[in-house]
């Protein structure tokens, strides 16, 4: 049997593919467009592994997706592919509409066509799991309860609006066509292979290079944080046992203000790799103008996933963030490649014709 993973060269997708193949013999076809966020180097350890088939391509390419599904007799699709960075969506929303809405629509159409052609047993066993975000629920006040699956969608950025649109399409394909779908809405992830434009890897990297650690506004925006491997285990569990048509929130019960997260990073770096002048990395914290429309608080209630499917995160924020800092300290070559032109030339050389 084979699963199709889309966006499997990105941050969460590559962690998922690595974890999947470490735990199962089931092959993975990995479809990724290799945008700036897709990095095949994350999957370098699978280069000689016949269970991993990498295909450079777009989820919006209906013919390609249908061909992959049919040729590999895929039994499940896990859709990670997306434009994922809120700041980029503010400066240029077009790509977000293109991939997150139109791309998801074409993917759904290809999956629907393939699924219609399966026999009854295969149809029943088939799953499409759509990976989404807690940002679709909007912003919470300090005293509001965390987001439940029943919360109304109130997306505030072009990114979250485009993800909300894809979630609605996935829901509609189940209700209208009977497609066996599952949706997960997860909080902020952190961990290995995180592109250094997002808060945690950006601050680790800037700290080490003596640059400012930029804090939007007053730094009191609250997010729930989940170690990426725990998100991967939640997706595996939902794929295995989730009820068709259901939505599952995924989170770590770890609400932290951005400023607190950055102070935690500084404290771990102070201990593991002290600054040459003996001062704390916290000295590099710099307040910058807030992001327009910045949501104040996200918090997620993962109770349904825990009660129904027995899932629990393995890492606390304290253990996960320490592992993350250690990973970045050990993988400075990975960061430097991502940040340098070498990465682009490597990409052109290795993936130009695939
Ligand atoms: P990412 O930006 O690191 O990776 C996205 C991947 O998708 C990249 O490899 C990129 O090349 C690929 N891609 C983009 N457009 C594509 C297209 N048209 N066709 C095929 N591939 C395409 O993102 P991520 O942080 O790994 O997030 C993965 C998914 O999880 C996204 O759907 C995101 O909305 C969701 N999510 C992310 C977080 C988080 O904290 N990062 C939290 C909750 C949900």
From TrEMBL:
Please verify whether the record's keywords include NAD: yes
Q: What's the short name of a Pfam family annotated to this entry?
A: GDP_Man_Dehyd
Question: In this protein, which residues make up the domain named NAD(P)-binding?
Answer: 4-324
Name the chemical reaction catalysed here. Answer: dTDP-alpha-D-glucose = dTDP-4-dehydro-6-deoxy-alpha-D-glucose + H2O
Per its UniProt record, what InterPro entries does this chain match? dTDP_Gluc_deHydtase (IPR005888), NAD(P)-bd_dom (IPR016040), NAD(P)-bd_dom_sf (IPR036291)
Q: What is its EC number?
A: 4.2.1.46
Top-level lineage group: Bacteria
Q: Name one GO molecular function term.
A: dTDP-glucose 4,6-dehydratase activity
Keywords, comma-separated and alphabetical: Lyase, NAD
Named cofactor requirement(s): NAD(+)
- Family per similarity comment: Belongs to the NAD(P)-dependent epimerase/dehydratase family. dTDP-glucose dehydratase subfamily.
Q: What is this protein called?
A: dTDP-glucose 4,6-dehydratase
Higher taxonomy: Bacteria, Pseudomonadati, Pseudomonadota, Gammaproteobacteria, Methylococcales
**What gene codes for this chain?**
rfbB
